Automatic annotation (TrEMBL):
<keyword id="KW-0720">Serine protease</keyword>
<dbReference type="GO" id="GO:0008236">
    <property type="term" value="F:serine-type peptidase activity"/>
</dbReference>
<protein>
    <recommendedName>
        <fullName>dipeptidase E</fullName>
        <ecNumber>3.4.13.21</ecNumber>
    </recommendedName>
</protein>
<keyword id="KW-0963">Cytoplasm</keyword>
<keyword id="KW-0224">Dipeptidase</keyword>
<keyword id="KW-0645">Protease</keyword>
<dbReference type="InterPro" id="IPR005320">
    <property type="entry name" value="Peptidase_S51"/>
</dbReference>
<dbReference type="GO" id="GO:0005737">
    <property type="term" value="C:cytoplasm"/>
</dbReference>
<comment type="function">
    <text>Hydrolyzes dipeptides containing N-terminal aspartate residues.</text>
</comment>
<comment type="similarity">
    <text>Belongs to the peptidase S51 family.</text>
</comment>
<dbReference type="InterPro" id="IPR029062">
    <property type="entry name" value="Class_I_gatase-like"/>
</dbReference>
<dbReference type="GO" id="GO:0016805">
    <property type="term" value="F:dipeptidase activity"/>
</dbReference>
<dbReference type="Pfam" id="PF03575">
    <property type="entry name" value="Peptidase_S51"/>
</dbReference>
<dbReference type="GO" id="GO:0006508">
    <property type="term" value="P:proteolysis"/>
</dbReference>
<keyword id="KW-0378">Hydrolase</keyword>
Length: 245
C-alpha cells in the first residue's frame, strides 16, 4: 500500500486551562511515534523572532522525547525539508508565514512531500491556515502581501482557526459566521471548517477526524446555517473529491 498524507492541524497552540500544546500532546506524540520519528523540524516564519520562538517550542516538546530544530538555522532549506520526516509550522501571522514560504520556495516542496506520504505536517493556527486550500478565511490582518492567497493545499477546503461564535448582547458588528458566509458568496470559494480552541483536524490518507477537547463547525454554500461537529467525528467526506484527482 502506497504511503498517504498524514497531518495534524491544530486550531492553536494555547487553550484555556492547559499549558502550551498540552491539549494536543497525545495526538502529536501518537502521530510521531507511530511513524518512528524522533526529530521535528520547526518552521517559525509566522513570527519575527525565529530563535526565541523555536526555543519556546523546544522547551515544550523536547521533554516529550523528541528533538526540535529550527528550519531557519540551516543554510540549505530545500535540502533540510527534503531530508525531514516531520515538520511543525507554528502560529503567528498567516500572511507573513505564507509570504515567507513562497519567498523561500518551500510551498511546492512541502506540498509534494506531504501528498506522497514522506513528510508529516503538524500546524498550529497560521500553520494550519497555510496547510489548506487558501488563506482567505484567516483571522489575521494583512500586514504583508504574499504573491497569492493559494496555500499548500494538503486539504481541498479552508479552515478558520480560533473559531468562536459567542457574541455579547452589546456587540453590533459582524460576527465570525457573517464573515465566513461573505467569503462563501465568492464563486471560487471552498467549504470552511471552523476549529474551536482546543480542537484539531487529524488527516490520515483520506480519513479525516476532528480530535481534541472541542469540536468544529462546518460552513458550506449549500447550508443556510453552519453544521456543528462534535469531537471525534469523522469528516472524511470533505476530502472525497481528492480521490478523483
Amino acid at each position: 500500500m502506497a504511503p498517504q498524507r498524514q497531518a495534524l492541524l491544530l486550531s492553536s497552540s494555547n487553550c484555556h486551562g492547559y499549558s502550551m500544546l498540552e491539549f494536543a500532546k497525545q495526538e502529536i506524540c501518537n502521530i510521531l511515534k507511530k511513524n518512528s520519528i524522533n526529530e521535528l523540524v520547526f518552521i517559525p516564519y509566522a513570527q519575527k523572532d525565529y530563535d526565541s520562538y523555536t526555543a519556546k517550542i523546544k522547551e515544550v516538546i523536547e521533554p516529550w522525547g523528541f528533538t526540535v530544530t529550527g528550519l531557519h538555522s540551516y543554510s540549505n532549506l530545500t535540502e533540510r525539508i527534503n531530508n525531514a520526516k516531520a515538520i511543525f509550522v507554528g502560529g503567528g501571522n498567516t500572511f507573513l508565514l505564507l509570504k515567507t514560504l513562497y519567498e523561500k520556495n518551500l510551498v511546492q516542496i512541502i506540498r509534494d512531500r506531504v501528498h506522497e506520504g514522506s513528510l508529516i505536517y503538524i500546524g498550529s493556527s497560521a500553520g494550519t491556515n497555510v496547510a489548506t486550500k487558501s488563506i482567505h478565511t484567516t483571522n489575521d490582518m494583512p500586514i504583508v502581501y504574499p504573491p497569492t492567497f493559494e496555500a499548500i493545499g494538503i486539504v481541498p477546503f479552508n479552515i478558520n482557526p480560533h473559531y468562536i461564535d459567542l457574541v455579547s448582547e452589546t456587540h453590533k458588528g459582524e460576527t465570525r459566521d457573517q464573515r465566513i458566509y461573505e467569503y462563501l458568496e465568492m464563486a471560487d470559494s471552498n467549504p470552511v471548517l471552523g476549529l474551536r480552541e482546543g480542537s484539531m483536524l487529524h488527516i490520515d490518507g483520506y480519513k479525516l477526524t476532528i480530535k481534541g477537547i472541542a469540536g468544529g463547525v462546518l460552513f458550506q454554500k449549500t447550508d443556510k446555517k453552519p453544521v456543528v461537529i462534535a469531537p471525534d467525528s469523522d469528516v472524511s467526506f470533505l476530502i472525497e473529491q481528492d480521490k478523483e484527482l
